[in-house]
Design brief:
Layout (H helix, E strand, L loop, with lengths): L7 H4 L25 E7 L4 E6 L14 E7 L4 H10 L4 H8 L6 E4 L4 E10 L3 E10 L3 E6 L8 H9 L9 H14 L1 H21 L5 H29 L9 H67 L14 H22 L6
Parallel strand pairs: 3-7
Antiparallel strand pairs: 1-2, 1-3, 4-5, 5-6, 6-7
Keywords: Cell membrane, Ion transport, Magnesium, Membrane, Transmembrane, Transmembrane helix, Transport
Protein name: Magnesium transport protein CorA
Family: Belongs to the CorA metal ion transporter (MIT) (TC 1.A.35) family.
Length: 360
Amino acid sequence: MKLPIDLHFLRHPFERRTPPGAAPGTATQPEEETTSHITLAAFGPEDYVEAEIDDPDEVQQYLGNYDVTWIHVHGLGDASKLRQLATMFDLHPLVYEDILHTHQRAKAEEYGEYSFLVVRMVEMVPRLDTRQLCLVVGPNYVLTIEEAGLDDLLDPIRVRLRKSVGRIRQMGPDYLSYALMDSVIDHYFPVVETFGDRLDEIDDPLAAGYTNDLIPEIQRISSDLLTIRRNLLPHKEAIRNLMSSTFTRYTDNTAVFLRDADDHISQLLDAIDTYRQICSDLRDFHFALTSQRANEVTKTLTIIATVFIPLSFIAGVYGMNFNNMPWQDWKYGYLYCWGLMVAVGLAFMGWFYARGWFKG
């Protein structure tokens, strides 16, 4: 199936909502129909509670009563709820602006009482798409605001919290924020592997010569891989910032796991670069096959033309209607003409064979 090449997203990776020269911190509500749905998970080594929050003020009764409180907002459609949470956690206007303007690249910033992180989530719906996840990491809480999407990429963390798998319930908010980022990064692996499988499926048909529908697909894969790389690469810088001395909220115990997340990003970037190189090789292979087939057609036509040019000359000479021509009345003239043309044709064919034109 022939797929169109959509380069619009590559040329326009985001759409800025504020006009040039707008005051810093100017937040514009996104055009999103999904209402903001708030869930909460509060836990400690022995305690765990989940709740759905209708009124953001309900969060206050959990803060301070548990070691860590995770408040998650899915969807940016309810401006009043988002503003209440921003006031409750005393978010800087620039932070609130970045939360609402979902074109941010991955980054990590320190704001004194809390750390602000932005990560990019990737999903296939069914075309490749990315969405923004913001994390506000405080002394005893993690506030996450997720741009609306179909897949719940953070559900594995909820399962680990409910079942107390690993050390997540024994650690602080810095480890929870790492776990959330790591889950987002790990979801890049199946997406990238999907493109690897698609390239494997393309290889054999391309070698067999079925190229009409494959070249646009290869271009689509290469473009999507470039989109993934552009969204994934800033995570490396963000994670290394978290491991620096500026972010004192992140302990040495969590820094060990951040190094592991950094290693996962390196693996993904290596895989993406490899697959993009495969795309380039497949395109080169296609052009080489096309050139080879064109050369074969040219060679075949050249052989045919070269054989028939002298035969056409002989037939033209003996087809002239002059009254006085040698051997015009000879009874073997017709057979002689045929024999001469066959001999010339065979001589040329033998010469081409000796030069190896018929090999392969």
